[in-house]
Amino acid sequence: MAEDPSYKTRKVITIGVVSELTGLSERQIRYYEERKLVFPERSAKGNRKYSFADVELLIDIANKREEGVQTFEIRQDMLRAEKRKEKKKKRELLRGEINARFGIQKER
């Protein structure tokens, strides 16, 4: 059965549940939000909502913090990874445009 990509990214989990799942305090989770490491959505009443991907990210952040990595360094690593992902996406788009322009077909 194929995994639905939206299930991991849907922001439906409250901060209390995230705290239980990660072992982090609600204050730690809010701190990581302040440091721009995680980006919850807000409900109509202003409550934070997280996704399963956010939970995994918070666990990864907590593990790095236990190893002594500073939040600034974690943020810089996240930004570098984002840039790499963007560059890869641009290369793929350009490759597709070139292939389409010159009628190049992918071999299967």
UniProtKB/TrEMBL annotation:
Lineage: Bacteria, Bacillati, Bacillota, Bacilli, Bacillales
Keyword Transcription regulation: yes
GO molecular function terms attached to this record: DNA binding; DNA-binding transcription factor activity
UniProt cross-references to SUPFAM superfamilies, sorted A to Z: Putative DNA-binding domain
Protein name: MerR family DNA-binding transcriptional regulator
One Pfam family of this chain: MerR_1
Domain of life (superkingdom): Bacteria
Keywords: DNA-binding, Repressor, Transcription, Transcription regulation
Residue ranges occupied by any HTH merR-type domain in the UniProt entry: 12-81
Signal peptide: none
